[in-house]
Design a protein that fits this description.
The complex is a heterodimer of chains A (382) and B (306). Chain A contains 13 helices and 6 strands. Chain A is mostly helical and 382 residues long. In chain A, the strands form 3 sheets. Chain A has a two-stranded antiparallel sheet. Chain A has a two-stranded antiparallel ribbon with strand order 3-4. A two-stranded antiparallel ribbon of chain A has the order 5-6. In chain A, a hairpin with a 5-residue loop joins strand 1 and strand 2. Chain A is globular. By secondary structure, chain B is mainly alpha-helical. Helix content of chain B is 61%, strand content 8%. A two-stranded antiparallel ribbon of chain B has the order 1-2. Chain B has a two-stranded antiparallel ribbon with strand order 3-4. Chain B has a two-stranded antiparallel ribbon with strand order 5-6. In chain B, helix 4 packs antiparallel against helix 5, helix 4 crosses helix 7 and helix 8 packs antiparallel against helix 10. The longest helix of chain B has 32 residues. Chain B is globular. Classes of the chains: A mainly alpha (382), B mainly alpha (306). Chains A and B meet through helix 5 and strand 2 of A and helix 12 of B.
């Protein structure tokens, strides 16, 4: 059977799907991470903190599916990207996993023992489980924008020549903090629609205001840095979007400022950074006017806009190499085979709607605000 | 006890069926692994015998004090009286052949790297691509496999033999535990259903052997991994080429880190469990009217989260 879509189209679709999965993860699990990172600050009393915990408790496990799905999709659709990033970010990945492992146990162990010291320790564990992944994701994205220190040898084996501390450059710290601010804003936005009016909600509004302002500031700073800094790569010569997945066939050069090229070629792409600024502003508007739904809408749009900005600025690059531009991975040279992409697309067309459906169903079943009264009386609450 | 014994018997019997199936699959896909498990150095006239005891010697390619049951290996691995099971020495010769064929594919790949359109190189590659992985085995000895001497090719061919004594004994340990469980559960099933046997030592023995299935599983896993060496993907990717460029200290960091993290969590978990057991079950408080849950008065429920 002939594959009805050509290789270039499938690669483009899988590039978009990579973005969809990352955005899906941030939209859903992002607010769980945000709420977890806020745990020591959002509630003054144990009951108030439990209010916040039980707002996300029924959802976070389902949301984590996006994380697994993202890893699986990179593995299957972009094997080079998987090899380079999972090996290169090895210790960062360890930090991330260790923090994510703390999350379920914090949710579950915290409630098993009434001792305030015990609970306070788990609140801080929860903070780590939300803050560290948000920071590491952002730092990773910053490094991808800068280019990773890897090269592919003649047999296309990957060699990574960086270290864990080497990831924490000033620019990467800035993107890391932007990621934290964005995720905290989203967590606060979610709390505003999910818990009853009261002191916790007021705190979420205050924190949301601060996080939204910080997001705008850091996003703007990041944009200036990308424009002024020595950042960016460009493909030169004939680009063979249908060709075999061999990065050595493309001619890539380091080109400072090239991350802004796409906005010149495709002006519609400017929509993404506009959304990145408009989102936090809408969230601020929602917070000011006590329209909680507007608040959450704004924080959601912000995550979509900010993540899409990174992807579109770099397109077609996925992971450029800082030490050997010729090894850079792009949408046209780092995918799996034509047939693999096609089969996986069919699988995705079946299963993605199922995931969306059950996520929506879970939201519907659990619709409504969590109250202090429920925290006191419902024996199934954490 | 009868239900437990019945399930134990049924599952230990089904493990034999599964084991037989995967042994049969090895006959086709991983001949070297099968030969190493059996420490079968030379191809025997069909049907081959099954070793139950012996000390395989990697240097001399013989098994000392070999005790064999005639015909059985040929029967279970080929399911016929005429099928041959290849021995290790013949498999090494075959690997040597495949390395020579793989070198042609390797040369074609190098030519294609320089000129993607070269038709003769493409043709040579298509003919020999199945053996490309074998040529890659030479990269342990020379950067460019095409420069390898016959001596090095022979060394690479011998590299395809995994650690035979380890394979031989791990398999016998694993299979031994499996058959022990059949005997144990058969006895338990008989005792529980017929003679109402309820001796304490037997029950204690049942607790003591709890780690055995775990040992057998780990043994099987290690067996599969060692038996696959030197390949990460059999016949395609040698392990030493498939490894990433991570440093040893990075790997130690994560091994120690994960062990500490999970160790700490395990200690906390066990202490919580003990505390819960001490408290014992409590009767469920009256159901709140908005809960809508149907709960009988006599029912026990877990402690509510506090």
């Amino acid at each position: 059977m002939a594959i009805p879509l050509d290789y270039e189209t499938l690669r483009l679709i899988w590039w978009v799907l990579l973005g969809v999965l990352l955005i899906g993860f941030t939209l859903t699990d992002g607010y769980d991470l945000g709420v977890a990172a806020l745990m020591p600050f959002i509630g003054k009393t144990d009951e108030e903190r439990r209010l916040a915990i039980n707002a996300v408790a029924p959802h976070w496990e389902g949301h984590q599916v996006w994380f697994i799905l993202g890893g699986g999709a990179i593995f299957a659709a972009w094997p080079f990207v998987y090899a380079v990033s999972f090996s290169g970010f090895y210790l960062a990945m360890f930090l991330l996993l260790a923090a994510l492992i703390l999350r379920p146990v914090s949710f579950k162990y915290r409630s098993k023992h009434a001792d305030p010291a015990w609970r306070s320790r788990w609140d801080w564990a929860m903070f780590v489980s939300g803050f560290v992944p948000a920071l590491v994701f952002g730092v990773a994205v910053g490094n991808v924008l800068l280019g990773l220190p890897f090269r592919l040898d003649n047999d296309l084996r990957t060699f990574y020549e960086g270290s864990l501390l080497g990831l924490f450059t000033p620019f990467a710290l800035l993107t890391g903090l932007l990621s934290v601010a964005m995720i905290v804003m989203h967590g606060a936005g979610f709390l505003a629609v999910k818990i009853e009016e009261g002191p916790v909600l007021e705190r979420a509004r205050r924190i949301g205001t601060f996080a939204a302002l910080l997001s705008i500031l850091l996003f703007a700073l990041g944009g200036v840095w990308v424009a002024m800094g020595q950042m960016g790569f460009r493909l030169e010569g004939v680009i063979d979007a249908q060709g075999p997945s061999n990065p050595h066939y493309a001619h890539t050069v380091a080109a400072p400022g090239a991350w802004l090229d796409n906005y010149g070629h495709h002006p519609w792409m400017i929509l993404a950074p506009v959304l990145g600024f408009a989102g936090p502003l809408i969230a601020l508007l929602g917070i000011r006017s006590r329209s909680h739904v507007l608040n959450l809408t704004g924080s959601s749009l912000a995550t979509v806009g900010i993540i899409a900005t990174v992807g579109l600025s770099m397109f077609p690059f996925i992971v450029p190499s800082a030490i050997d531009p010729q090894s850079s991975l792009t949408a046209w040279n780092a995918s799996s085979s034509h047939l693999t992409l096609w089969i996986m697309l069919l699988v995705t067309l079946i299963f993605l709607p199922i995931v969306l459906a059950y996520t929506a169903w879970a939201i519907k079943v659990l619709f409504g605000r969590v109250t202090i009264e429920q925290v006191r009386t419902n024996p199934d609450f954490y | 006890m009868m239900v437990a014994a019945a399930f134990g018997l049924a599952s230990s019997l089904s493990v034999v069926v599964l084991g037989d199936e995967s042994g049969y699959a090895l006959t086709d896909n991983q001949k070297m692994k099968l030969a190493a498990i059996e420490a079968m150095w030379d191809t025997e006239p069909a049907p081959a015998g099954l070793s139950i005891f012996g000390f395989p010697d990697m240097d001399k390619h013989v098994t000392h004090f070999d005790i064999k049951i005639p015909y059985v290996l040929g029967l279970i691995s080929t399911r016929s009286l005429t099928g041959e099971v290849m021995g290790i020495n013949d498999l090494v010769l075959k690997a040597d052949e495949r390395i020579h064929s793989g070198l042609i594919a390797y040369d074609a790949v190098e030519k294609l790297k320089a000129d993607r359109t070269s038709a003769p190189a493409r043709e040579a590659f298509e003919l020999h691509k199945r053996d490309l992985g074998y040529a890659m085995l030479l990269k342990r000895y020379v950067p460019d496999p095409r420069q390898a001497s016959d001596q090095q090719i022979l060394m690479a061919a011998k590299d395809t033999i995994p650690d035979v004594p380890v394979m031989f004994w791990l398999f016998r340990m694993m299979a031994g535990i499996g058959f022990f469980f059949i005997a144990f559960f058969a006895l338990a099933f008989y005792c529980a259903s017929v003679c109402q046997f309820n001796k304490r030592w037997f029950l204690k023995l049942a607790v003591v052997i709890v780690p055995l299935p775990w040992l057998a599983i780990e043994g099987g896993w290690v067996l599969a991994e060692i038996g696959r060496q030197p390949w990460a993907v059999e016949g395609v990717l040698p392990t030493f080429l498939g490894a990433s460029s991570l440093t040893i200290s990075q790997i130690w960091t994560t091994i120690i880190g994960f062990t500490l993290l999970y160790g700490t969590l395990a200690v906390i978990e066990v202490r919580l469990m003990i505390a819960a057991v001490r408290k014992g079950p409590v009767e469920h408080p009256p159901v709140p009217s908005d809960g809508g849950q149907q709960q009988g008065n006599a029912g026990f429920a877990p402690l509510p989260a506090e």
